[in-house]
Amino acid sequence: MTSLRTNSSWIEPYFIRDICIDPPLVLAPMEGVTNKTFRRLIRSIGGQGLTYTEFVASKALKDRGKKALAMAEFDSDERPIAIQIYGNDPQIMAQAAEVVEDLGASIIDINMGCPSKKVCANSGGSALMKDPLHAVAIVRAVRAAISVPLTVKMRSGFDHTQRNAPELSYMCQEEGAEGITIHWRTREDRYGGQRAIDKITETKSKLSIPVIANGDIIDAESAIQMYKETGCDGIMIGRGAIRNPWVFQEIKTLLSGRQYTPPNPQERRIILERFIERYREDFRYEKHSIGKIKQIAKYFYSGLPNGEDLRRSILRSKTVDEIESHIQDFFGSHT
Ligand SMILES: Cc1cc2nc3c(=O)[nH]c(=O)nc-3n(C[C@H](O)[C@H](O)[C@H](O)COP(=O)(O)O)c2cc1C
User: Fold this and answer.
1) Using CA atoms, how far apart are residues 291 and 295, in angstroms rounded to an integer?
2) CB of 43 closer than 6 A to ligand 1?
3) 82 CB under 6 A from ligand 1?
4) Whether 72 contacts 103, CB under 8 Å
5) How far is the CA of 115 from the centre of ligand 1 (A)?
6) What end-to-end distance do the CA atoms of the chain give, in Å?
């Protein structure tokens, strides 16, 4: 059992227009991870106030491509849900946003943070941070096309010579964005770099809309540190939620000043088995589902004695049945 001395205002909800994000803990968009099945897993444990789809290409959405529409799918009780779109053409982004609004998104989010070569080569994702006027032209076009709230997710800058998140965020706000998420890294940092959250703090001091802080939050202590140092309105968690899907519950409980009991091995087993079963149902072709299950389930071992053995056996498995039997054997010896 863990407890922490906290300031209860850290866990106060924030609002994106009239949408209450309560608790102010957000599941980050993650390509290949935060599909409907993974988000169901997180929601079944709870503690998050908002979930994001993985990013969806605006061009494919505008053309109502089958794969893009599947990526934007969400359960009818998944509320609020933010659907994230990416691209570089303001008109195509606006048309994609209309499609997403029709699908029933609570919030539409524009990606200005993706570091991938493929996305940046087409001047989308974090490459937009290098061209603020073009970036805000996208915000303007999308804003004019939809009536639901619009938010933007970016990095602190493209590289260390251009850490312009506060200025660009302000411009986005003036064009009608209603929330900004900032991952403290630059595009150049990718997933490394030295922790520097000064641009989140500066953005928060400049803006009147909510600012959500992101990057390396993995537990209540790192969440509190981020709140204290930046004054942010909410926090977003990505990789920490893959490694530990209970992270939102843990933070919510501890920041509310209550004691937290982490899940025992049997609770972990039940969740993991349910997750795999859903994957099997949602991804019809075994080859596809096994790759996805391996990508995500390999993290679930963390913190368990001999968990590394489970990770290795999951990665070596050739069928979903094999994965399930390794999980049964593993947890059978941890009762
Ligand atoms: C596998 C993976 C896929 C990601 N895909 C997206 C994405 O589709 N859209 C986006 O804005 N950020 C994406 N990100 C970045 C995360 O949303 C987040 O900003 C980043 O991982 C830092 O947060 P963390 O330290 O809590 O993981 C991705 C990150 C990972 C690890």
Assistant:
1) 6
2) no
3) no
4) yes
5) 10
6) 19
- The one-digit pLDDT tens for each residue of the chain (335 residues) are 576 666 777 789 999 999 999 999 999 999 988 999 999 999 999 999 999 999 999 999 999 999 999 999 999 999 999 999 999 999 999 999 999 999 999 999 999 998 888 787 777 899 999 999 999 999 999 999 999 999 999 999 999 999 999 999 999 999 999 999 999 999 999 989 999 999 999 999 999 999 999 999 999 999 999 999 999 999 999 999 988 899 999 999 999 999 999 988 888 888 888 888 888 787 766 677 788 778 776 666 666 777 888 888 888 998 888 888 888 888 776 55
Q: Is 178 helix (H, G, I), strand (E, B) or coil?
A: coil
Tracing tokens 């933007």 back to the chain, one arrives at 152
Among residues 114, 120, 172, 232, the one annotated as catalytic is: 114
Burial zone of 123 (CB within 10 Å; 0-12 exposed, 13-18 middle, 19+ buried) = middle
Whole-angstrom Cα Rg for the chain: 20
Cβ atoms of residues 61 and 91 within 8 Å: no
Q: Among candidates 183, 192, 199, 242, which has minimal Cα distance to 218?
A: 242
How far is Cα 158 from Cα 123, in angstroms, rounded to an integer?
12
Q: Are residues 158 and 186 in contact, defined by beta-carbon separation less than 8 angstroms?
A: yes
Ligand 1 within 6 A of CB of 55: yes
CATH T-level assignment (fold) for domain 8-255 = TIM Barrel (3.20.20)
Give pTM, 2 decimals. Answer: 0.94
Strands 211-214 and 180-186: parallel
Tell me, yes or no, if 114 is annotated catalytic: yes
Ligand 1 centroid from CA 29, angstroms: 6
Q: Is 173 in the pocket of ligand 1 (CB under 6 A)?
A: no
Quote the CA–CA distance of 105 and 171 in Å, as a whole number: 24
Instruction: Give distance in angstroms: CA of 331 to centre of ligand 1.
Output: 30
Give how far the C-alpha of residue 199 lies from the chain's centroid of Cα atoms, to the nearest Å: 20
> Where do the domains of the chain lie?
8-255, 265-332
